[in-house]
Amino acid sequence: EAQVTQNPRYLITVTGKKLTVTCSQNMNHEYMSWYRQDPGLGLRQIYYSMNVEVTDKGDVPEGYKVSRKEKRNFPLILESPSPNQTSLYFCASSPVPPGGPEAFFGQGTRLTVV
Amino acid sequence: GESVGLHLPTLSVQEGDNSIINCAYSNSASDYFIWYKQESGKGPQFIIDIRSNMDKRQGQRVTVLLNKTVKHLSLQIAATQPGDSAVYFCAEGSISSGSARQLTFGSGTQLTVLP
To answer: How many CB atoms lie under 10 A from the CB of residue B65?
Structure first.
């Protein structure tokens, strides 16, 4: 079954404690991206990757890091989380260009930073 | 930067009626537009897309209309069903500009289907 898998689904952490949210896809898609979703703001792109070892900033990259060492994985790293990073995060993958009927989103990770 | 927005944050319709969800965009360089449906607790799901060289596209019970003159996009859902209750997002992308690798999402409209 084609899918994008994020882990964990829920996470509560404290300010400053490094964390990683994993994302894996099984469709051999070139393009992967991370979004955060906040009430009234829709989805905003954090980072995206066109292929292995190719990453770029989205609209709201501050406070986040990503890596793309393998095609299937695209982890999101928060080196020093802060309360303003409390949000719902989605990973997505698709062929290039992004979006379209072949794009898949993960189930989301709800992060709370206290 | 460029933005994609929605006219109404919420929409309530009677079951069986048609629904129309609107979206305004500002990036005239957008090459394609996508509508997504997001049910509670789930990630967005693709509904339908349309290229900028089209003004109408139909799917199963859904129709997307694109008016480039006024930069307006709409999603029409025929015979709305309870399972259509969700948040609907429009998104726009470009394959011909410098930001070709990004999708820009609107803020979403909550559609509620009343019995």
So the answer is: 17
